[in-house]
Design brief:
By secondary structure, the chain is mainly beta. It has one domain: Beta Complex (Metal Binding Protein, Guanine Nucleotide Exchange Factor, Chain A), CATH 2.170.150. It is about 5% helix and about 35% strand. The protein contains one helix and ten strands, in the order βββαβββββββ. The strands form two sheets. Strands 6-7-8-9-4-3-10 form a seven-stranded mixed sheet. A three-stranded antiparallel sheet has the order 1-2-5, with no helix packed on it. Strand 6 and strand 7 form a beta hairpin. The chain starts with a strand and ends in a 24-residue tail after the last strand. The relative contact order is 0.25.
Length: about 140
């Protein structure tokens, strides 16, 4: 992987990922359900230094995450596209795969926060599942 690029639906916000993600997963937490409109979120966990916004200024909404610490959830202020989540206590951000120019470039390798998944969320057979985040 050399570099991945992405942004929002209207093009007002653009970003790039400059290093390989440390993991790719499907997050079933309640906050992800809110931002996706009901389903889980597909995310790439990227170290902070490997991510940069290259155009525009996302807006963010902060709310408590599973650790009890705030997670800032960034989205386009114009079209509302969810872009990434920033768990302030962790060294990475969770970039939403739907915003990538080529979302097929990455494939989930785990399901996280399955404890909060409704019974109708489907889990991919063969992928590890974690009731909360993956073990550190």
């Amino acid at each position: 992987m050399s570099q991945l690029q992405g942004g929002c639906a209207c093009g007002a916000v653009r970003y790039q990922i400059n290093q390989p993600p440390v993991g790719v997963g499907v997050c079933h937490c309640r906050q992800c359900q809110y931002s996706s409109g009901g389903g889980p979120n597909y995310v790439a966990l990227v170290m902070r230094e490997g991510f940069e916004v290259t155009k525009g200024s996302p807006k963010a909404f902060a709310s408590p995450g599973g650790s009890g610490q705030d997670v800032s959830r960034a989205f386009c202020p114009d079209c509302g596209t969810p872009l990434y989540s920033d768990p302030v206590v962790l060294p990475f951000i969770a970039v939403k795969l739907g915003g990538l120019d080529d979302p097929s470039a990455l494939s989930p390798g785990m399901h996280i926060w399955t404890l909060e998944a409704p019974s109708w969320h489907q889990m991919t057979p063969g992928l590890p599942t974690f009731e909360r985040g993956p073990p550190g």
